[in-house]
């Protein structure tokens, strides 16, 4: 059941109405949301509901045991158990095919044909997200930052909560579980805010991400050799904005739906292409995921306090790359970003040693903004170009794309469409316009009478029907 | 004291207004369809739909003996459920009975009157050419018919009419199968087994109206095909065609196959191709423009090859009718000029080959 489907709208309507009926009955409300969440997940694939349940059970049990254990060894044992099962399941489903393929190639290079297709596993949708979400609970209890919940139902709901189960935002237990205990916040502003978020998410996904994909990104990546370097470069920029519109659109819908049901989820994005360094970018991009790696991996292996900080950074960024998928392209993606962050850290340290500010300042007051602008543009180029690795199916395809970009400028076709270019231009403008303009527009919409609001939603529904490719699921569903 | 509406009630009012606007939009489209084509959901409600499922033949046929009148299209059906005049109960000596089997292009889905369809125009030309003979041309085209339906049409309706000549223009409906599994399955679970989902009823016009007219938003001229036309298994298509030809051959009837003509061609400007192929891309969303061109050419190749294999004459209609707006309303349906061009081309072919039995 995709967010963009009629089925989801009906499902949401029923859940929303029942949720409001249970305003004064928290137990019934939790039961409703748990059943709804499992139903939602089973609409994608009922076979993997057991996996969701297993992940919930293992981490619930481990969380309880860690909290109850008096000695450090016992706590570590239960943490190891939770990590082994959770990451083992994730590795089995997500990386088994990668290793099997590697093994088959290795054996084939020795002249032996091996048929290991029986091991090909289907990736359960959302596994990277719900695995990390459930693990964050266990890790927080281990570190004494959260207390174990006594209710398995509450924990199962936290793991399977339908707005987040497929693509996040990865929510910490300490953010969501307490909200289950609070009475449902009931205000018109809250519901309207939720509605606006949902609408904004649909617009981002269907009017921007899908159109950019159809007009620029998909053709370029399907056959890069056919196109001119300019078209390929614009397609890379288009993909940069497609990815942002896609995942932040999903996040907006998830947050909006959660808000309609009485929950607050983390924001996940803070205008990422305003970043003036790669380090800055990772504090603005998919923050629920990068925050997970920062808190549980980077700090866990020593951060900047223990061991070699650069090694720790590399390990963290390679892990981030691998989290996105099993492939050397993702490893290289992580290495490039890790290298940039290490370089920036080294440079900041060097400037600090010389008594200089962390970032260069403009020589003249009038030119004060120039270094910042240059840094923003440079960062954007790094992010955009490294995304070739992200979009290409494998390292070879990414290399072919780069090679096609380096051929003579006049070679190849450049089938730009007015729709594609206009969409990219509007996406760029929207990203760099001050957010207060959107807040102003949202306030104006919310002040309008119900008939105008309803008319706008109907118009938007028709427009989205026009834009929707019908074939495009959210990009992060594959992770 | 009057109570202020609760937060939930406010959202409910907004959603209700949105639904009302959408219902009003759909109602307007249904009324427009009724006025233009004489077909809408109102036919469904009154039990007077244009099409019926014939229990005897298992075919979808037009409702027999009716007139479906709209401002743009008027369809008169005979007692067989075809867009054709009534046939003489007894064949006269020296008469010529020709049947044209196919789908919406043969039926003339968008053609104003029965007399303006190319089978009817072919009949006119034959009557002028052979004034002494009683000429009957049966339009055995039904919208949406695939080759399997056309075979059944041949067996159950056309052959019992004892035609002298059968022309089959297969159309493109079989291609829809190629996109079914690609489009309906979201990534990444190619083999997912989810619970059943609710979908919109297929009589809704709003979605189709919006999507048909906005194809340019969703597709670009570049390569982005989800399915490689070279990897499409054409064997089932070929097997169905062979069964059709073999059935006609076994019945001893003179048989002509025609290749499928289409509006868009690779030699046209890209914008023109995109506009003309909008309908084809709508029905075959897993192929892009180059992919569709390749797919259609390969299938016409199969038609030519089957004809050669069985020694059946094949009229290369795709070569004889140029693409473009002059001859096509959309990707595959003819304009009035296209209907005339098709009738002329078929007529010339039949006469030059002596297939009219004189």
Automatic annotation (TrEMBL), chain A:
Keyword Cell membrane set for record: yes
Topology of the protein relative to the lipid bilayer: Multi-pass membrane protein
Membrane spanning residue stretches: 47-66, 78-98, 118-139, 373-390, 410-433, 454-477
Main location: membrane
Involved pathway(s): Glycan biosynthesis; alginate biosynthesis
Protein family: Belongs to the membrane-bound acyltransferase family.
UniProt-recorded name of the protein: Probable alginate O-acetylase AlgI
The organism of origin for this protein: Aromatoleum toluvorans
From TrEMBL, chain B:
Alphabetical list of Pfam families matching this protein: Lipase_GDSL_2
Xref: InterPro entries: Ester_Hydrolysis_Enzymes (IPR051532), SGNH_hydro (IPR013830), SGNH_hydro_sf (IPR036514)
Name the UniProt record assigns to this protein: SGNH hydrolase-type esterase domain-containing protein
Coiled-coil stretches: none
Annotated ranges, domain SGNH hydrolase-type esterase: 101-339
Entry-linked Gene3D superfamilies: SGNH hydrolase
Native source organism of the sequence: Aromatoleum toluvorans
């Amino acid at each position: 059941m995709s967010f963009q489907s009629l089925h989801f709208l009906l499902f949401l309507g029923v859940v929303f109405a029942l949720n409001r009926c249970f305003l004064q009955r928290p137990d019934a409300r939790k039961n409703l949301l748990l059943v709804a969440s499992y139903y939602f997940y089973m609409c994608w694939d009922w076979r993997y509901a057991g996996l969701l349940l297993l992940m919930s059970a293992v981490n619930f049990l481990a969380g309880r045991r860690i909290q109850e254990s008096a000695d450090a060894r016992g706590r570590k044992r239960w943490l190891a158990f939770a990590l082994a099962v959770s990451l083992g399941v994730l590795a089995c489903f997500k990386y088994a095919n990668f290793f099997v393929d590697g093994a088959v190639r290795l054996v084939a290079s020795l002249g032996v044909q091996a048929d290991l297709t029986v091991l090909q596993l289907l990736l359960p949708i959302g596994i990277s997200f719900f695995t990390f979400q459930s693990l964050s609970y266990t890790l927080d209890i281990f570190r004494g930052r959260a207390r174990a919940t006594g209710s398995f139902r509450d924990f199962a709901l936290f793991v399977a909560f339908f707005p987040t189960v497929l693509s996040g935002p990865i929510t910490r237990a300490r953010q969501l579980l307490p909200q289950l205990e609070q009475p449902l916040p009931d205000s018109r502003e809250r519901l309207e805010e939720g509605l606006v978020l949902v609408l904004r998410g649909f617009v981002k996904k269907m009017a921007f991400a899908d159109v950019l994909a159809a007009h620029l990104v998909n053709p370029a990546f399907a056959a890069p050799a056919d196109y001119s370097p300019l078209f390929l470069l614009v397609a890379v920029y288009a993909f940069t904005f497609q990815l942002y519109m896609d995942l932040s659109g999903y996040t907006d819908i998830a947050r909006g739906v959660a808000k309609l049901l009485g929950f607050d989820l983390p924001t996940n994005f803070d205008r990422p292409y305003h970043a003036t360094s790669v380090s800055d970018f990772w504090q603005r991009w998919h923050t629920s995921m990068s925050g997970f790696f920062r808190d549980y991996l980077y700090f866990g292996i020593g951060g900047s306090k223990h061991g070699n900080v650069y090694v720790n950074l590399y390990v963290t960024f390679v892990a981030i790359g691998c989290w996105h998928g099993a492939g050397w392209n993702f490893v290289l993606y992580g290495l490039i970003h890790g290298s940039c962050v290490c370089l920036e850290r080294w440079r900041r340290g060097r400037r600090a040693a010389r008594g200089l500010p962390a970032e260069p300042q403009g020589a003249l007051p009038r030119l004060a903004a120039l270094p910042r602008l240059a840094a923003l543009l440079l960062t954007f180029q790094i992010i955009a170009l490294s995304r070739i690795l992200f979009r290409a199916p494998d390292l070879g395809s990414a290399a072919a794309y780069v090679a096609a970009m380096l051929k003579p400028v006049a070679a190849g076709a450049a089938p730009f469409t007015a729709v594609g270019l206009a969409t990219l231009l509007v996406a760029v403008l929207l990203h760099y316009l001050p957010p207060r303009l959107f807040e102003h527009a949202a306030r104006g919409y919310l002040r309008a009478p119900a008939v105008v609001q309803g008319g706008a939603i109907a118009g938007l529904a028709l427009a989205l029907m026009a834009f929707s490719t019908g074939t495009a699921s959210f990009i992060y569903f594959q992770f | 004291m009057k109570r202020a509406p609760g937060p939930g009630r406010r959202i409910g009012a907004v959603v209700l207004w949105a639904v009302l606007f959408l219902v009003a939009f759909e109602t307007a489209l249904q009324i427009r369809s009724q006025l233009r084509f004489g077909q809408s959901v109102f036919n469904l409600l009154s039990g007077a739909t244009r099409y019926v499922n014939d229990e005897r033949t298992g075919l979808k046929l037009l409702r027999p003996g009716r007139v479906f009148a709209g401002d743009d299209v008027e369809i008169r059906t005979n007692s067989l459920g075809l867009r054709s005049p009534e046939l003489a109960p007894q064949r006269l000596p020296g008469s010529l009975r020709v049947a044209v089997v196919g789908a919406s292009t043969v039926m003339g889905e968008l053609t104003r009157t029965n007399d303006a369809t190319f089978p009817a125009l072919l009949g006119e030309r034959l009557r002028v050419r052979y004034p002494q003979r009683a000429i009957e041309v049966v339009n055995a085209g039904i919208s949406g018919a695939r080759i399997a339906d056309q075979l059944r049409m041949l067996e159950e309706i056309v052959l019992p009419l004892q035609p002298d000549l059968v022309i089959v223009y297969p159309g493109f409906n079989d291609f829809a199968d190629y996109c079914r599994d690609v489009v309906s399955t979201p990534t990444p679970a190619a083999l997912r087994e989810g619970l059943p989902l609710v979908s919109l009823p297929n009589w809704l016009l709003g979605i189709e109206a919006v999507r048909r007219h906005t194809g340019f938003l969703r597709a670009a001229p570049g390569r982005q095909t989800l399915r490689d036309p070279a990897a499409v298994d054409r064997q089932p298509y070929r097997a169905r065609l062979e069964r059709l030809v073999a059935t006609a051959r076994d019945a001893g009837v003179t048989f002509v196959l025609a290749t499928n003509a289409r509006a868009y061609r690779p030699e046209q400007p890209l914008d023109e191709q995109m506009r003309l192929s909008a309908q084809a891309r709508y029905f075959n969303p897993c192929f892009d423009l180059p992919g569709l061109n390749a797919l259609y050419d390969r299938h016409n190749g199969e038609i030519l090859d089957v004809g050669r294999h069985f020694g059946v004459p094949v009229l290369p209609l795709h070569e004889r009718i140029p693409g473009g707006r002059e001859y096509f309303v959309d990707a595959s349906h003819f304009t009035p000029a296209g209907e005339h061009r098709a009738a002329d081309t078929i007529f010339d072919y039949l006469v030059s080959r002596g297939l009219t039995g004189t």
